[in-house]
Amino acid sequence: MNARTEESAAVEPLGDSAVRWLRDPEGDPRALLDALRAHSGVVDAIVTELHACVTFDPLHPPDAPWVVEANLPRAGAPRAPPREHVIRARYDGPDLAEVASRLAVTREHVIHAHSSRLYVARMIGFLPGFAYLAATDPPLPLPRRAVPRTRVEPLSIGIAAGYTAVYPFASPGGWNLIARAVDFVPFDRELGARIALGDHVRFEVLR
């Protein structure tokens, strides 16, 4: 077992039915997620940028499910190309002008900066179908809003802390809302989340 695998195997219990560990940052997160969910004894798995987590039946704990990470493809290894989604966006969000002012740029600059980037789904969570999209180029540098909204409309597109995302449902939220998605279904009851871990996303400007 190499040093990286030893570090990954240093698991942290989360109650009596879950564990997490620092995942290999060079590994394929989607392959890891699929492998963990297929592992005997695992009820569900979550993979984020830093950690992996599995939940299981406490009466029948799995036999070290995290060791599958050692046998997964690392960065640079051949893998299936990621799916790419194009989300049409109308840039009329309630925070667009404020975002431009805080960054000391024009509204058009914010629109171009956001829509010209390629994004990768790094995490799925918070709400069903809520994909944390990280830009492959430097993101618009804004933190979350100081005071969250009690309600964010569904399909609102927000930015915060280096990520952008589409709100799949109405919910409270503290992201800076700059646009709204058009004709996009982030979550379907039958099919689940539209965007999967590792998928690529681009935004197309609607005028």
Structural topology:
Blueprint: H1 3-9, E1 12-13, E2 18-22, H2 29-38, E3 42-47, E4 51-56, E5 84-90, H3 96-103, H4 107-115, E6 119-124, E7 131-135, E8 149-152, E9 156-160, E10 163-166, E11 171-173, E12 176-182, E13 187-188, E14 192-193, E15 200-206
Parallel strand pairs: 5-15
Antiparallel strand pairs: 1-2, 2-4, 3-4, 5-12, 6-7, 6-15, 7-10, 8-11, 9-10, 9-12, 13-14
Please provide a brief summary of the model.
This protein has helices at residues 3-9, 29-38, 96-103, 107-115; strands spanning 12-13, 18-22, 42-47, 51-56, 84-90, 119-124, 131-135, 149-152, 156-160, 163-166, 171-173, 176-182, 187-188, 192-193, 200-206. The protein has 207 residues and is of the alpha+beta class.
Count of helical regions:
4
How many domains? The number is 2
Mean pLDDT: 88
Would you list the SSEs in sequence order as H and E? HEEHEEEHHEEEEEEEEEE
The structural class is alpha+beta
- CATH homologous superfamily heading of the largest domain: Cyclophilin-like
Q: What top-tier CATH class of the largest domain fits best?
A: Mainly Beta
CATH topology descriptor of the largest domain: Cyclophilin
Share of β-strand residues: 25-35%
Can you name the CATH architecture of the largest domain? Beta Barrel
Low-pLDDT parts are: 1-8
Proportion in helices: 10-25%
Radius of gyration: 19 Å
Q: What is the oligomeric state here? A: single chain
Record the strand order, biggest sheet. Answer: 5-12-9-10-7-6-15
Shape: elongated
In total, how many beta strands?
15
